[in-house]
């Protein structure tokens, strides 16, 4: 239904969904739009499945050959405790996987990078919880050490944010960390080259688009799913991402 028609050739669409917090929005939060209520999250997965979308890993979405099915991969930035509590069980139940991007210095604490915006009350997963997800086959990626705007850092600090976070996560988890999420989606060519030099195999941004629209494996677009994403907003976003008119799943 959502497969693009190009003459007689059918081209499957692959998208990466970006989530932050799974829970009821806190009215006092300045980033309340980042919350997706648990029933809405379940509903989104149900709609995608009902419309024939296949949930796959990020790695497969980026590198895997298409078998003609539309596919989606799930990513969660910041490693909020609410993702462990409300999304992880649902995903396990449905046999889905996801990539979790961890801010290494904030593991087991709160979202310190949002303090200046008056919103540093969200708990971050503990190392044990992150390990549990990794043991269940979820990919753990780096979201740097401290969640800075990377383009504003000098070369040495940039290298430490990318290299040290990767190595510390690998030491803690005992497995390779090959994916990076740029905090705030902030990146430029210098940051991309630093990510490549640090040994990452891919990096995701916050630019809206499909996987096919990626300019490189270090600029993978995503679709940012927000509090009202089951309705016209998600429909509009997917349409914009694929740049084609199509029937979109998950009608409100
Ligand atoms: Zn973030």
TrEMBL record:
CDD domains per the UniProt record, alphabetical: CE4_NodB_like_5s_6s
Keywords, sorted A to Z: Signal
Name of one Pfam family that matches: Polysacc_deac_1
InterPro entries linked: Glyco_hydro/deAcase_b/a-brl, NODB_dom, Polysacch_Deacetylase
Compartment(s) where it occurs, according to its Swiss-Prot or TrEMBL record: Secreted
Domain NodB homology, chain residue ranges per copy: 70-252
Main location: secreted
Highest taxon, organism lineage: Bacteria
Name of protein: NodB homology domain-containing protein
Organism: Trichlorobacter ammonificans
